[in-house]
Amino acid sequence: MNKNYGKNAITSIVDSVEHAMGRRADIAVTGLRRAGKTVFVASLIRNLLARSRNPDVLPGFRPEIIGVKEEPAGIADLPPFQTEKYFRDLQADPPRWPKSTDSISRTELKIRYKRARSITNPLGKDGILTLGIIDYPGEWLNDVQLLHLSFEEWSRQTLSRLRTGAISIVATDFLGFLSTANGNSRADIDLISRRGHELYKDALFKMRDELGLSFLQPGRFIMPDGGGDKPLLWFFPMEPPPEADKSGKDTLWATLAQRYKAYCDKIVTGFLRETFDRCNQQVVLVDLLTALNGGQVVFDDACEAIGTALDALGLGRSRWWKLLRMQHRKFDRVLFAVTKADHVPQSQRHALERLLENIIGDRISRDLTDGSRVQSMALASVLCTKDDKVLVDVGEVDVVVGKPIDSDKGLKIYPGVIPSDRPRPDYWSRTAIRYPIFSPPRLDAGAFGGIPNINLDRAIDFILKDILK
């Protein structure tokens, strides 16, 4: 038996017992690139630490917190979340944004809280909650879809996409290579497969960095897990050649198919054990503002990534995803949050929230029977703007004012009208808003200072309100 699997199984059993006894909650936090998951986790930890000393922090989080401390890493089998490093970044002069994480990490908090007298707590003893937080790349969540696609199905689906519009331009080198590759070849398989893998990976990076796309598979190709350049990863989408020997073990096409299956069996399934089987709460962060300003193709791609996340979490309408949900621990609560809410004035945040709600509503299962509860909201993990008004030809309009990270002067931005549902075709003819990177506020080095935010209290209250009783 694989030692790591046994270790993970024991960890999962211990966690399950603690969950059942109400002593533990584990939150999985994810988000696609630049959605702000690292900052979300850092702000959550800092504000919980501050809340135990200052009840004015996180005012919408209802439990009375007595004390919070971050636990030592101990013998944890996942890399630790670099909490102190991220705090130092925000305490610097000038403050700087923490560097985005590109792999999985974990931390654990002990939270002591007031419990009311009840039949199960006649003496009114304080409660102690162990709160585990796992932070992982949203790109890995995209991969769960691969578990119900054969290599041939995935290849046809992926190549069809690569051959359309602007994507075909950034994928030119890979498509050119593919046109000369022979799937029935038995010569230089490792050399050819590695070259094809690199070219396909380059195309994925260009789709992300140049086109702003986020639904990219396999996720480990652009967000590796630090395991190095393993031969298991040397595959790429390829249609089967005519009269392909699909059962053979020594052709290029068969080798690619075998590696794809191994990727699904070992890496994707292993990811599910590390996250889904440990966690009973999930937070998915989405950057819809960037998608809206990227144009219709980028927005539609972001919607597809959100739909795939719903499916992967067992919340979609597909029968296959419901079977997957039966095989892994069910999430008690799932929060979808659209980030950077401070980039629009308060008058527009409800529309931003409604937009995410409507995107989710198009794909979520209508008959969830596993007790999962889903909510969407707009939030900013770190508030770095303030609202203002400016006078224009048509009257006063609401704007936000923030200091760009490379400037000492505040900048006023009018975001236009945020749609509360999928935009109509004429929306895409408007001029896109180019947001700067706003400088974060400097974090107080003292223990009492929380981080200013928007709706972080609502988020943590939704996730934990049934647990901290």
Q: Which helices and strands occur, and which strands form pairs?
A:
Blueprint: H1 3-20, E1 24-31, H2 37-51, E2 65-70, H3 83-91, E3 105-113, E4 127-137, H4 138-142, H5 151-162, H6 165-170, H7 172-180, H8 189-209, H9 219-222, H10 252-274, E5 281-286, H11 288-294, H12 296-312, H13 319-327, E6 333-338, H14 346-361, E7 373-378, E8 385-392, E9 395-402, E10 411-413, H15 456-464
Parallel strand pairs: 1-4, 1-5, 5-6, 6-7
Antiparallel strand pairs: 2-3, 3-4, 8-9, 9-10
Tell me about this structure.
With 469 residues, this protein is an alpha/beta fold. The chain has two domains: 3-141 and 275-383 and 444-464, Rossmann fold (3-Layer(aba) Sandwich); 151-271, no CATH class. The chain has 15 helices and ten strands. A seven-stranded mixed sheet has the order 2-3-4-1-5-6-7, sandwiched between helices. The chain has a three-stranded antiparallel sheet with strand order 8-9-10, with no helix packed on it. α14 (346-361) links the parallel β6 (333-338) and β7 (373-378). α11 (288-294) packs antiparallel against α12 (296-312). The longest helix is centred in the middle third of the chain and has 23 residues, at 252-274. The radius of gyration is 24 Å and the shape is globular. Residues 1-7 and 13-21 have low confidence and may be disordered. This is YcjX family protein. Pfam families: DUF463.
What is the CATH third-level topology name of the largest domain? Answer: Rossmann fold
Shape: globular
Helices, by number, come to: 15
Structural class, from helix and strand content? alpha/beta
